[in-house]
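Supplementary Note 3. Input sequence used for the single-chain structure prediction.
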Amino acid sequence: MSLFNLIPDKHDVLQDQNAPVEKNSFRHWLYVTIFQNSTFAGKVFDIALIILILTNVILLMLESVETVARSYAGVFHMLDYVFMVLFTIEYILRLYCVRSAKMYAKSFYGIIDLLAILPSYLEFAFPAWHMLMIVRSFRLLRIFRIFRMVRFLDESRYMIFALLRSFNKIMVFLIFILLLTIFLGSLMYVLEYKHNPGFHSIPQSIYWAIVTITTVGYGDVAPVTALGKIIASFIMILGYAIIAVPTGIMSASLVSKYRDADNDDRICSNCNNRNHAADALYCKKCGHELNDKIE
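The predicted structure, written as discrete structure tokens, is reproduced below.
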């Protein structure tokens, strides 16, 4: 399954292609109610679902507060089962009313829906996984469909595609930074370990280098030698430059994506490929010379 299939777009929101073919049936009514908000029942269902998700997320947060959890342990336990049953029934109904349950289960929202109920069942075997039910907050992404904010989904797709396009460059940069922190951490260990118990090992020194180069600066470990302070100052200044690099890569890719999107009507007469840059002379897919815009 391609990663691109997991990126929601406006077609996931406005018109699910898995709608059942039989009209005027209970299955079709159920589909319209659950997946669309063009009817009164659909709007009520969507609003009720959002309220349920918000309530569940808020209760999970309150349950992490020790004093509240002790006082209302029984209430929280009962409500966990209620939400588990409700969300399970809803997921089964979604699979039932679409034309292809397999296709929906593999879609972006289908995976989110499944992940929303899995922790409730895994909790029986792994009690510590209880708080993973907070993943249900991702189901609030459906608010874009309920309030018809489809344009925001288009913007999110631009950002995701830009990130994927620049992924290789960012990975090369991150590998270089990883090697740099290993070298600098080892260097600080050599300089500091005799005078500073904070640099008692190379892994501890690498941890310090990562904290310093990312400009986090916890302050739990600090150099004490003059040469160590000089190198630490260099790493701090280097950290600001390092932060700008992936930002620049991502920004350049995003600008390029927007530019390509603005020229979506440039069509190759040979292979009908779209989405060429404004200054492109040849098709990026087949290499055929691009002519003027084709209506």
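The chain has a mean pLDDT of 80. The CA atoms of residues 179 and 185 lie 10 Å apart.
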